[in-house]
Task: structure prediction
Amino acid sequence: MMTRTHGAWIWYELMTTDPEGAKAFYEAVVGWAMTTGHNGDNNYGFISNADGGMTGGMLRLSPEMCEHGARPGWLGYLGVDDVDAMVERITAAGGKVLMAPFDVAMAGRVALVADCCGAPFYIMTPTPPPGGGESTAFSPTLQGRCGWNELCAGNVDHALAFYTGLFGWQLGEPMDMGAHGKYHFPSHDGVGIGGMMAAMPHMGPPHWNHYFRVPDIDAAKAAAEAHGGTIAVGPMQVPSGDWVVMGTDPQQAFFALVGGRPGAA
Result:
């Protein structure tokens, strides 16, 4: 649905110490079909939906990765025209390179970076499949996709300049949250892609939250709790009319969900 790859969210990745356990959890909660490996490699699997569209992948964290500081969690990928050129621009804008550009066979060229405030994310120049192709990982409406990307920024003004300058995002009229400052609404090619706000003290270091869409937020919450997850927030209604929940999965990765509440009176 995005007309340009540059600046679009194109992939979401779950890093986990237990892909088999994560598969059981998220298939029950979100309704995904997940694999824990492919082509003989059990370290990377895929996340797909009933309609055949892909949401992302799942990376098995090795003990060595964890020894070097890796932890279970979700990271998003922003599409860019040229990963190597973008790394230089990100650095010049105050960001950092956490993992230098590298090639992934049949997928594209990737780098792990942090923005001007320290929030990590991937950038990727994808290799188009035969006949072309377009990411379906983000959608404001499709079930099982990320429906909202939310930045909790160390300095929201610096972050706004960073992302609009590098990725061409546009900004709508912000929402005043009183003592918490303003909530900003970035868009890409006219499509709202989420929100940006100053991180509150209890939120931890700057980071992106990615909200995955479910048809029934109450059913998803119940499934999460029944399958070993912990809900920290919600269901809470947001200005769009949707409801959100946030929590941690059984492997302690933070997750967020967005959806309707058809069972409510």
Q: What stands out?
A: Helices lie at 19-29, 63-67, 83-92, 156-167, 217-226. The chain has two domains: 9-126, 146-259.
